[in-house]
């Protein structure tokens, strides 16, 4: 069995899209379709039932997807252990990072990693925190950044930031000068929010429901700079982590902390408890601890 075909098939199922799978794997959509057809031919049965632009799994497809993840995880472990034989003289490390936090936190970590291990190819895979968590859970990634808390029976983690959310509104807004706000204070305002599959998006929506409020979303983006541009265009207001707001021109916007203990941006580096970690991954964890260790030790859970 061609392992690439199995990898392409599982990615198509995981992302529920040939197009998104092709983008994630850096290949063309016809290549994905061809490899899936070849896998079906090799197995002698259809795996997907195409229905226009969508598809559903056959019984054989469900079994192949479930067992295929085990095969891919085993292959990843084999590659990791063989790579370790070179003691970080060469190899590859892929880290899942939500797009909103990459430059904000990890530029110094990337720089330090390259300086110490110049022969290890480092790739940052940008995706929402939920997708990163799922990829680490399934073994497609060894390590990534997620919004805490996560399932501690599955993951070990190292927390490196705990940040409250802040209202971002055009300068001169009716909230200017307030010490804090609650969700009820912005209940009638359209929101510029993160994509629906982002963990923080789910938590904001849950908080609105908790308070009996109806959330009105004007636009969505996974990039904080575009969110801010949409606020500047007066399409709505945004709720961004305080650390992100420090990167924004304070003369153009009003920033007011959100007084909600349940809506806190807790970020952590996560990895599976029950799996082998390559030397490159362990080195990344060590450097992240050095560069991003919080001042308050109670925010960190190392799971060693």
Automatic annotation (TrEMBL):
<dbReference type="InterPro" id="IPR036390">
    <property type="entry name" value="WH_DNA-bd_sf"/>
</dbReference>
<feature type="domain" description="HTH lysR-type">
    <location>
        <begin position="1"/>
        <end position="58"/>
    </location>
</feature>
<dbReference type="GO" id="GO:0003677">
    <property type="term" value="F:DNA binding"/>
</dbReference>
<protein>
    <submittedName>
        <fullName>LysR family transcriptional regulator</fullName>
    </submittedName>
</protein>
<dbReference type="Pfam" id="PF00126">
    <property type="entry name" value="HTH_1"/>
</dbReference>
<dbReference type="Pfam" id="PF03466">
    <property type="entry name" value="LysR_substrate"/>
</dbReference>
<dbReference type="GO" id="GO:0003700">
    <property type="term" value="F:DNA-binding transcription factor activity"/>
</dbReference>
<dbReference type="InterPro" id="IPR000847">
    <property type="entry name" value="LysR_HTH_N"/>
</dbReference>
<dbReference type="InterPro" id="IPR036388">
    <property type="entry name" value="WH-like_DNA-bd_sf"/>
</dbReference>
<dbReference type="GO" id="GO:0005829">
    <property type="term" value="C:cytosol"/>
</dbReference>
<dbReference type="InterPro" id="IPR005119">
    <property type="entry name" value="LysR_subst-bd"/>
</dbReference>
<dbReference type="InterPro" id="IPR050950">
    <property type="entry name" value="HTH-type_LysR_regulators"/>
</dbReference>
<keyword id="KW-0805">Transcription regulation</keyword>
<keyword id="KW-0804">Transcription</keyword>
<keyword id="KW-0238">DNA-binding</keyword>
<comment type="similarity">
    <text>Belongs to the LysR transcriptional regulatory family.</text>
</comment>
